[in-house]
């Protein structure tokens, strides 16, 4: 059984929403930065996790197709955020909120240039470290832990997992929550590290690109780091070249070719001439 | 329990031989810790089981789907038997196996019986049943219609029971 989460985009938006709530409304701006950022990260994770738990629950309890429900919740998430950035949290009715207080900004690598000269001019923010840490932890959990073992067995053959006495319902819920939570954390990192506010379309579809990256990396968390880096290059490069959109087109083509070429890894094509 | 469907339920095809051997043992020590698994112990145990049950595989790291049907069946039995079960339910354990593999699976079940385990063999292969069983029970339409020690059973009685002879007799009595 594969469990598909096509809703990373929506979970990312909800993570950003929750982090914004913490930064602008639920904690005072003079909160110390470590406390503020930790609270935002936790809230972001929780936002994404809860958003993913809805389809997770439907899947685990009622066997509702999670591909459809996670996908659809993306659109709900867009309008959820739009309500707040045009309504209660809006800055004069525009599609954005006020800027976060400085305590809610993720530090950039360049901020530490005095201590580590190599960081001079690096605008990458601490989110990249969060991402690397998550990938590493996930890899260890996936390969070494009892829970990771269960997830791999269920993913490969749910009947064998059931027969071995594994709890499918609980594992589906935990996997979905974890997946959504990580997407939510990405949303938090994006608003706290880059845009410093919640605004409309702050994500150019990161949640969808994530699916392509995960698939290209054969679902291996360490390989995801490498593929994500390369795709990041593609996205950033895409900002520079004309016509715009070439990068997305390349993304799509790459996925298409890789998925389509999968068959050629399993089978050998042979042309025969019948006379 | 040895499920009737080797690939459908008994194994996870893309996981390694070692992981399939640990499909049930992963929870408790020595393999399962509080949160993590002791992979070294898992591999050591797998290697020991592979040797003891003569599972032909290049290593314990290859995916289970690379194994032949007979070796897969041996893997499943090794996994179950390694837990020192008091009861083994073996459903069609030799179906689709070659003669050699069949023989080793049967030997394994007999060894377990001799070691004190109760073995419930479910099979439609009469030859196999007569070869292995101590007692034979025949089912027809979901009911046990006859049960006898193997020495007293002969092909004809069992065959008639399987065909529902008793059911026919009951119907006649009812009329």
Structure overview:
The complex is a heterodimer of chains A (275) and B (175). Chain A has 275 residues and is mainly α. Chain A has 2 domains: 8-203, no CATH class; 207-268, no CATH class. Chain A is 67% helix and 0% strand. Chain A is built from 10 helices and no strands. Chain A has helices at 8-26, 33-62, 66-86, 127-144, 146-156, 158-163, 168-195, 206-216, 221-240, 246-266. In chain A, helix 1 crosses helix 7 (168-195) and helix 5 crosses helix 7. The longest helix of chain A is centred in the N-terminal third of the chain and has 30 residues, at 33-62. Chain A is globular, with a radius of gyration of 21 Å. Chain A starts with 7 loop residues before the first helix and ends in a 9-residue tail after the last helix. With 175 residues, chain B is an alpha+beta fold. Chain B has a single domain, classed as P-loop containing nucleotide triphosphate hydrolases (Rossmann fold), CATH 3.40.50. Chain B is 45% helix and 13% strand. Chain B contains 8 helices and 4 strands, in the order H-H-H-H-E-H-E-H-E-E-H-H. In chain B, the strands form 2 sheets. Chain B has a two-stranded parallel sheet. In chain B, a hairpin with a 2-residue loop joins strand 3 and strand 4 (143-149). In chain B, helix 4 packs parallel to helix 5. Chain B is elongated. The model of chain B is unreliable at 168-175 (pLDDT under 50). Classes of the chains: A mainly alpha (275), B alpha+beta (175). At the A-B interface, helix 5 and helix 6 of A face helix 1 of B.
**Which sequence of SSEs, written as H and E, runs from N to C of chain B?**
HHHHEHEHEEHH
- What number is the mean pLDDT of chain B? 82
Global mean pLDDT of chain A: 91
Which ranges of chain A are low-confidence, i.e. pLDDT below 50, for 5 or more consecutive residues?
Answer: none
Q: What assembly state would you assign to the polypeptide chains in this entry?
A: heterodimer
The radius of gyration over CA of chain A amounts to: 21 Å
Number of domains of chain B: 1
Kindly state the number of beta strands of chain A: 0
Largest beta-sheet characterization of chain B = 2 strands, parallel
Portion of residues in beta strands of chain B equals: 5-15%
Helix content of chain A: 55-70%
In helices, the fraction of residues of chain B equals 40-55%
Residue windows where pLDDT falls under 50 for at least 5 positions of chain B: 168-175
